[in-house]
Specification:
single chain; alpha/beta; two-stranded antiparallel ribbon; 10 helices
Length: about 280
C-alpha cells in the first residue's frame, strides 16, 4: 500500500468511526471591543490569546492607540485581521445630505489607512439603510449613492492593498445572495468583496450555506453569532444556523480565513465560553 492509499484508507476509517476531520479549518477571532478585561492593548490581546483566539478585529475611528496595538500584536502573535468602519450606521454613504456622505468617505479612507497600519487586510462597511418612511432613502437611491461614494475610496484601497468588505445586515438592502453579488460586482474592482454574517441573513429565508456557495470567492470574511427565529439573538451554537453545512460551503468555495465572534463580550470566563462554543462548531478541540 502506497502513502496515498494509506492516507485515503485512514481518513475513511476515521470517518466511519465518527472522527471525520472538519471540511475546512477556520481561524478563530473576536471583535476587540468584546474583550472586557485589561487596560492596555497588550493586556487585552494576552487575555484573548489565553482564551484561545488567534485574532481580533478593531473599530475605526476609535480612541485605540494603534501603535500600542501593533506592538501588542507582535508580542502576542495575535493578528489584527480586520477593521470595522465604526460610523457607517450614523454617517451613511447613502445619506441624502452630500456633507454626510463626504464624512462617510473620509471615515472609510481613515479606516483603510488604519487597516494598513495594523496589518489588517479588510475594512468592513455597511453601505446604507433603506427606509420605508423616507422616499429619499429608497432602494434605488441607497444603491446609487452608496455605489458612488464607496467608489471614491477604491483608488486608496488599491494603493494600500486593503479590500472593502460589504456586510449585509438588517438594513432592508441586499437581502438576497443575488442582490449582494450584483452590488459587489457593480464596482468592477478586485478591492471590493463581501463580509458575510451566517446569522444575520437567516431572517430573510435563505440558508447561510446557500449564500456562501453563491458568493464564492467574493466572500472575504465570516462573522459568528447565534440567531433563532423563535428566540432571536442567542448564544453561539443555540440558534438555527446549520453550522456543519456552513463549513462544508466554506470548503466548497475555498474559504479558509477568519471566523469572528460578534456577540456580547466580557471577562475571562465569558471569553472562554465563547471560544469553547466556537471550538465545538469548528471542531478545533
Amino acid at each position: 500500500m502506497d502513502r496515498r492509499q494509506f492516507l485515503a484508507t485512514s481518513a475513511a476509517a476515521l470517518a466511519a468511526a465518527g472522527f471525520a476531520p472538519p471540511p475546512v479549518k477556520l481561524k478563530k477571532a473576536l471583535k476587540y471591543g468584546m474583550i472586557g478585561e485589561g487596560k492596555s492593548p497588550l493586556e487585552k490581546l494576552e487575555l484573548a490569546k489565553a482564551c484561545g483566539f488567534e485574532g481580533v478585529e478593531i473599530d475605526s475611528p476609535s480612541n485605540l492607540d494603534l501603535n500600542a496595538l501593533v506592538e501588542a500584536s507582535g508580542k502576542t502573535g495575535l493578528k489584527v485581521h480586520g477593521v470595522i468602519d465604526s460610523i457607517h450606521w450614523t454617517t451613511r454613504f447613502s445619506d441624502p445630505k452630500p456633507e454626510t456622505r463626504e464624512k462617510a468617505v473620509k471615515a472609510l479612507e481613515g479606516a483603510l489607512r488604519d487597516a494598513k497600519k495594523v496589518g489588517a487586510d479588510t475594512v468592513l462597511v455597511v453601505p446604507g439603510k433603506v427606509s420605508s418612511k423616507d422616499p429619499e432613502e429608497n432602494f434605488e437611491k441607497v444603491w446609487e449613492r452608496s455605489q458612488a461614494e464607496i467608489a471614491k475610496a477604491l483608488p486608496l484601497a488599491g494603493e494600500l492593498g486593503i479590500k472593502i468588505a460589504v456586510e449585509v445586515v438588517w438594513n432592508d438592502f441586499l437581502t438576497s445572495p443575488e442582490k449582494l453579488i450584483e452590488y459587489v460586482d457593480a464596482f468592477k474592482s478586485p478591492s471590493v468583496g463581501a463580509y458575510f454574517d451566517a446569522s444575520n441573513m437567516l431572517k430573510y429565508g435563505v440558508a447561510s450555506a446557500e449564500w456562501i456557495r453563491k458568493l464564492g470567492k467574493r466572500m472575504l470574511k465570516l462573522d459568528f453569532k447565534g440567531y433563532s427565529k423563535a428566540k432571536q439573538w442567542c448564544e453561539i451554537g443555540e440558534g438555527d444556523e446549520d453550522w456543519p453545512e456552513v463549513l462544508k460551503a466554506c470548503a466548497d468555495v475555498g474559504y479558509a480565513s477568519w471566523a469572528t465572534a460578534e456577540v456580547k463580550g466580557g471577562g475571562e470566563a465569558r471569553l472562554k465560553d465563547i471560544s469553547a462554543r466556537m471550538d465545538k462548531i469548528l471542531e478545533l478541540k
